[in-house]
Amino acid sequence: MSITEAIEVFNKLVKTTDNKGEIKIYKGFIQILNSLKSKGLTESQSPIIQKELDSLQLDASTDNLKKYYKQKLSEFKVFLKEEFYFTTEKHYTEIGMVYGMIFGTALGMFYGTSIESLLGSSMSLSMGTTLGMLLGILYGARKDAEAKKLGRVV
């Protein structure tokens, strides 16, 4: 399936549903496919992407379309990341925020229970989470800017 054919499939799906969740997933696919189309892929990249689109079976009919296409969108993003190092906008920022929350919470718990300062453990926990999120977002934004500069954002 070519990129243009896949875009047509998702444009038809957008027109046939009123479910906002489904429309968001379909438009996510359309955005990525349009970006790939305008990126000027090499002759070696196009067949690989077409083969992946075929393997995703985008024109299959299932009972739960939202769940099916959400999974396929996730698989396609992973494929683009692993095969061509393409990422979506704010990919690294989102990952950085999650890791920052995890490590910030852990550090906040550690300092909150071991030091027991005047602030208390709950304040240490919230400060650790906030600081971790902030640092994660900053690191992710820097990585996103680098990926954009290299032309790897779809």
Order of helices and strands: HHHHHH
Assembly status: single chain
Classify the helix fraction into a percent range.
over 70%
State the helix count: 6
Characterize the overall form: elongated
Q: Profile the largest sheet.
A: none
> Alpha-carbon distance between the termini?
19 Å
**Mean of pLDDT:** 88
Uncertain stretches of 5 or more adjacent residues: none
Strand content: under 5%
Quantity of strands, as a count: 0
Structural class: mainly alpha
Alpha-carbon Rg, integer: 20 Å
Could you describe the 3D structure shown?
This protein is mostly helical and 154 residues long. The mean pLDDT is 88. The chain is built from 6 helices and no strands. Helices cover 77% and strands 0% of the residues.
Quick structural gist:
The chain has 154 residues and is mostly helical. 77% of the residues lie in helices and 0% in strands.
What descriptive keywords fit this protein?
154 residues; mainly alpha; 6 helices; 0% strand
